[in-house]
TrEMBL record:
Domain Histidine kinase residue range list: 41-264
Record localization: Cell membrane
Protein name: histidine kinase
Origin: domain of life: Bacteria
Entire protein: shown range: 345 to 615 of 615
Gene: walK
Length: 271
């Protein structure tokens, strides 16, 4: 609590009273704290790949270059790390646009089936490589969604790539869409992967929050995928939630469910 004292004086300077203002600054402080944490996280996330790149370049400079096979491997590492940094900076720019309310959504009618098929196609190679089966389950007669297609593509991309990353070979992914009352469409991305411990569930949508930092980095993750997905879904007026492990009713696996407006909702809004 912040306390300010303001003396009240009469024109001749006589003190007649004091105004005491008590301000609850808990929220402000929390915001400040989370801002500081965010900057520390960003710095750390950028320093890690930079340090790796530097040491590999030094090794190349100090003789590894003469061994073409090893040199190639080292160059591969620096390229991967560079790509991850680019992803990270792009994700950060994306988030900052949402934070400053500058993100503009170009909403229009979009076929739900197309959205799911496009994302399944995009990952078909990775799915095949990991021997992960993908199933698309669409409710009959589903209306179009009223969304920004590029933004939705990113949501599905983030969720499906997580499902693939955290599901061991031989697993299964289900992409489901169905209507919910109030002219919403629900989307479900379900996997049979490693799941998320209960204690982490509450914080899983926070920026840079990961169950296993090293593992996420190894997989090329930035730790921002879920927070971006949540920003985009919320910007459409929808909600997103994640269930995992026992909470989802089985021993393992993760289910992310989010809702988006259907065109019918938009039509009714216009009337
Ligand atoms: P990352 O780039 O690390 O994947 P995300 O924001 O997409 O960042 O996810 C945050 C963390 O949530 C991940 O590091 C991982 O620990 C956990 N996670 C997300 N999706 C899944 C999933 N489908 N199965 C298991 N863990 C997941």
């Amino acid at each position: 609590i912040k306390v300010t004292f303001t003396p009240i004086r009469r024109s001749e300077g006589l003190l007649t009273g004091t105004i005491i203002v008590l301000e609850d600054v808990t929220e402000e402080e929390k915001l400040d704290q989370s801002r500081r944490e965010f900057v520390a996280n960003v710095s750390h996330e950028l320093r890690t790949p930079l340090t790796t790149i530097k040491s590999y370049l030094e090794a190349l400079d100090e003789g590894v270059m003469d061994d073409p096979e090893l040199a190639n491997k080292f160059l591969g590492v620096t390229r991967n790390e560079t790509e991850r940094m680019i992803r990270l900076v792009n994700d950060l720019l994306h988030l900052s646009r949402f934070d400053s309310k500058q993100a503009v959504l170009h909403k229009q009618a979009a076929s739900v089936e197309d959205m799911l098929e496009i994302v399944a196609d995009r990952f078909s190679f990775q799915l095949q490589q990991k021997d992960i089966d993908i199933a698309l389950i669409l409710e009959d007669g589903l209306p179009d969604a009223y969304v920004d297609s590029d933004a939705m593509d990113q949501v599905l991309d983030n969720l499906v790539s997580n499902a693939i990353k955290y599901t061991p070979a031989g697993g299964q992914i289900r992409l489901e869409a169905y209507a919910v009352p109030g002219d919403w469409i629900a989307f479900k991305v379900q996997d049979t992967g490693v799941g998320i411990p209960k204690k982490d569930l509450e914080r899983i949508f926070e920026r840079f929050y990961r169950v296993d930092k090293a593992r996420s980095r190894d997989m090329g993750g930035t730790g921002l995928g879920l927070s971006i997905a949540r920003e985009i879904v919320r910007a459409h007026g929808g909600t997103i939630r994640l269930e995992s492990g026992l909470e989802a009713g089985d021993q393992q696996g993760t289910t992310v469910t989010f809702t988006l407006p259907s065109v019918e909702k938009e039509v009714k809004n216009r009337v």
